[in-house]
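Ferredoxin, pasting as requested.
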Amino acid sequence: MAYTISDDCIMCGACADNCPCEAISEGDGKYEINADACVDCGSCAEVCPVGAPQEG
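Structure tokens follow.
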């Protein structure tokens, strides 16, 4: 199941910069993950300083 980004997101962009499939984009107040493009690799969660990306 694809990752999601919680409301803890601080909009630093680390997750989007690290996503190998470009599934993460800026949303309204936090980043959002396109579930259809996410390959569930966990790269976003590894680099997030606040742990916002979470397994869906």
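Note for the archive: The mean pLDDT is 96.
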